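Weekly puzzle thread! Below is a chain. First person to post its structure in token form gets bragging rights.
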Amino acid sequence: MYKLRILITTVIAIYLAFTCGLAAASNVHVTDDGNEITSFLSGYDIDTVTFTLDAQDTLTVEIKPYGVPGDTDGDGNPDASSNPLISDNPGVGPSERLSIGMNCANPDVCLPPEVLFVYTNNVFSTIPSSTDCPSSFAVTSEAYILTIPTFSEIKDNLGGSTQDFSAFSFSATFSDQEPEDFAPDADANGVPTCDQISLEPPVVGNIPFDCYAINKVIVKDVSGTTKDSIKVQKAGVRFPFANVDMNTAAVQIRIDGLTFDFAPGSFVKNPDKLDYLFHSASGATPSVAARLNFDKSQWEIDVTKGDATLIDNSDGVDIALVIDGYESTENVVLTPAGGNRLVFTRDPKVDCNVNDDGIKLSCIASLTLQHISGRIITKTTADGTLFHRDTVFTDDVTGDMAIVHTSCSECLHCGDVYGNFTIVEMSNAAGDRMAGTCGVTDASCGVIPEIP
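Winning reply:
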């Protein structure tokens, strides 16, 4: 749980100093701020600031202005001004600034900050630059977003000895004549005030897979014996990301009362594919063969010499797959098919390797491009927007477009330039097709400005 005393202001300058406490709290806190700039909708007049701490210990600070982020004169264009009295350079220009400061070693003090995160002239940096506080900053069409992974480590990195933090923020563009904005409002002397915030990571169970579908099940029950066979064939499964380390991931498959547990490292990888196989030891009872084919977004299990009496089809059969904190279950009803067999066949079959429109998805889990304005565009297979052959990235403000070949037959790198766009982040699984194309172990990369 994190307790933050925060003062928030408008520009693009935000100072945060954090203190940690042990009060009950949710993982989201929203600070509302009134509309101070009334002559136009400014991209530097803060509407809300939302602090979100997720279950992976990542703190996200989303600052939403009344206008378009980066727009100084209220014409809706963050890259140019239609007012001759107000300058507006692309994105967050040199006369626009966002700063975020943090205090952990001295949590009762707001100023000076022990570390200052600065975003100006479309460049993200820290003062001092050697501070060990990993983070990144992005400007979207709706908000300014600061992301701090492993938030619990920030306190230790800055020398804090308690779980207390304090924070304040300030925002403004220096090219207009409008007042600076504080949220909450500053006191009568213009000194920032702090909002009390407590954040606690959510308690969650296993996360559902992005796609999960049982396509075919065959159960053969040989009465009075334990020589039954159970098969789940070409079931669909897709993760929301690619980086699944099967050397450390435990796997469990449940078919009603039958449970099969696979210790980390039990599955053997095909050297050239994200295709993992398991075979039980010779002579083992029951005999189990299982397959996790992430290239095709499929999984299978074949059990012989098993006990089908543990499967109760009276209310359908629950079939579950659990991998490293991800879990999905589907209930299917088996129908008699002769020869002591019970069968389920889905028609049409669900293919988790395509999106809702039937378009084949890329082998890349996620790809992020940055426009020259600083705006970030991310597409993923999880949301069905990263395709097998080509993916189009479009900047909503300028209409600029980039077509990226995402079939994994061509090697992609962070830093590759496509017109007014640059690849700044790519997420893959170690040993996948992109890794093979690039001749590396893992083709994942990231060059979004961040603190090392």
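Puzzle host: Confirmed. Bonus trivia for everyone else. The chain has a mean pLDDT of 82.
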